[in-house]
Amino acid sequence: MDMEYDVRSHGALGDGTTNDGPALQRAVDACAAGGGGTVVLRAGRFLTGGLTLRSHVELHLTSTATLLGAPDLSRYPVDDRCVYASINRSLIYASGCESVAITGSGTIDGQGERFPREEESQRPALIRLRDCHGVRLEGIRLKDYPAWGVHPVHCTEVRVVGLRIDSMVRPNNDGLDIDGCQEVFISDCTIRSSDDSIALKALQGPEPCRDIVVTNCLLTSRCAAIRFGPDAVSPIERVSVSNCVIRDTVLNGIKIQQSLGSVMRDIVFSNIVMDNVGGPISIRCAGWKKGASNVWAVFDDAGWENGEVSGVLFQNIRARVMPGNTPTNPKMGISITGTSRTRPRGIAFNGVDVNFPGGGTAEEAARRNVPDLEQDYPECYIFGVLPAYGLYAHHADGISLHDVRFRLESEDLRPAVVCDDVRDVELSGVRAESCREAGSLLRLDNAARVFVTGSGPLGASGTFLRVEGRRSRDIRLAANDLGQVPRAVELDLNAAPSAVTGPVS
Q1: Do 288 and 181 fall into the same domain?
Q2: Do 452 and 374 sit in the same domain of this protein?
Q3: 81 and 3 in one domain?
């Protein structure tokens, strides 16, 4: 049986005002020196600055215990290896450890409201674990921390189970930032964060972020619920996200952002419900020129043209999108955007049903020539209002939609789907609401090798498919439901009549 070390036996008072940091550290060090065991906090409020965990030590907080972060930055040692200059300190830290754990039903309160609010200000993260093997974080409540919540870096065999995270008191209050870790299992967590709830990163190469499972979580964010990148110079791959509910999230439910020339691939999202999200899904593969002026870290995108996003599946997704008409929420749908040199590929949507608020105008629908913005901040809103209400794809290959429903709560004059410079597209069983005043239900601009089958409007509509651009070719139609459309296909002056085969009248 593991030895138990009560922090009060090492001088901790737990009165919320005394600096219990030295006593807590003595208990941790004694536990490690004794071969490992459990350091227990009971019935009190234990104020401390930075604590360092050791191998084979479990820090356990009972339901009556709260660990309080001291509102004094000087009490938090600097991690010189942390590339994030503004958050290179932490309340709990471990480096190169085996079998470390933080468990219990107690609370870790970072007292973030007592730190400067400005993004560039120095603030500590709550928990940072570096180069550790065998990490367990179970049951703890994390609240009101100054910067990020949990930041494991280059760790292996990480289990994060049943955390209750609630922090919206400061900018950059991410929930979990998994940075270049492998064999990570995240389950049964409830996260409410002012920034990304769960973020996968790989900025401190060469370690990839690989073999990640996220399941059975409830997520709320003022930014994104689940985010990949953009700070990744090593691969993020072999990731499964399933059985999660995303609600009241201001930007995207899911964001994949490759900007620094690495790869993101072999990713599956399944059985996801989103309610009241700014936009359901955003995929971006481009660059991000952010050098010495960045307060966080120097992001070198010199190799951005090598970036890859591929092999991503969205399956059994239900979403309801909040109304939006602001610079950071410009009537967002699903977007897949690359550049002429970086093209997302192999992106599949199966069994997706999304409710959109509508409100798109004829002027927004008429938008053409959306810029590449090759090295802008890779956020979902940088293009403004896109010309499709449901899905917009630009510079992409191998996009497939099977059994997809796009619904509207009010009229929208934009097409449901717009594909601009895309190749190898399959739309099978795509049903979407529209109106007769909309220019078309679907629009293809310079698209090649496209197959549309078993698709049609939900209710009355205008033209089914509009084809534009002299590079549009090999577009085939078969067995679509065209009973409620006045015209099946419309071609602009640049599109060759031979670009489309199938029923075109």
Answers
A1: no
A2: yes
A3: yes
Residue 1: what pLDDT?
47
Q: In this predicted structure, what is the pLDDT of residue 30? A: 98
Please report whether residue 206 resides in a domain: no
Of 195, 211, 245, which residue is a domain's last? 195
Per the structure block, which two tokens stand in for 490? 């419309």
pLDDT 10s digits, 333-364: 999 999 999 999 999 999 999 999 999 999 99
- pLDDT tens digits along 161-171: 999 999 999 88
- The label of the residue with tokens 């001088």 reads 11
Q: Are residues 276 and 155 in the same domain?
A: no
Co-location of 185 and 301 in the same domain: no
CB under 8 Å to 129, separation ≥6 — which residues?
53, 93, 94, 95, 97, 100, 135, 151, 152, 153, 155
Structural domain containing residue 265: 257-505
Element (H, E) at 27: helix 21-33
In Å, what is the CA distance from 27 to each residue of 110, 128, 134, 157, 365? Answer: 21, 20, 21, 25, 64
* CATH code, domain with 90: 2.160.20.10
Q: Can you tell me which residue has the tokens 């400005």?
A: 118
Number of domains into which the chain is organized: 2
In a domain, 223, yes or no: no
439/437 Cα distance (integer angstroms): 6
The CATH number for 353's domain is: 2.160.20
User: How far is Cα 279 from Cα 301, in angstroms, rounded to an integer?
Assistant: 26
Is 213 inside a domain boundary? no
The DSSP code sequence of 313-334 is EEEEEEEEEPP--BTTBSS--E
DSSP conformation class of 299? B
Distance CA 479, CA 459 (A): 17
CA distance 216 to 219: 10
Give me the pLDDT at residue 504, please. 62
87-136 pLDDT tens trace: 999 999 999 999 999 999 999 999 999 998 776 789 999 999 999 999 99
DSSP state of 422: E
Does 240 map to a domain? no
Taking 3-state DSSP, the helix, strand and coil percentages for the chain, each rounded to the nearest 5, stand at 5, 50, 40
Both tokens of residue 166? 């609630």
138 and 273 assigned to the same domain: no
pLDDT digits (tens, 9 = 90+) for 172-218: 899 999 999 999 999 999 999 999 999 999 988 899 999 999 999 99
Q: Give the tokens for residue 37.
A: 């065991």
Mean predicted confidence (pLDDT) in 46-68: 98
pLDDT at residue number 326: 78
- Same domain for 188 and 269, yes or no, is no
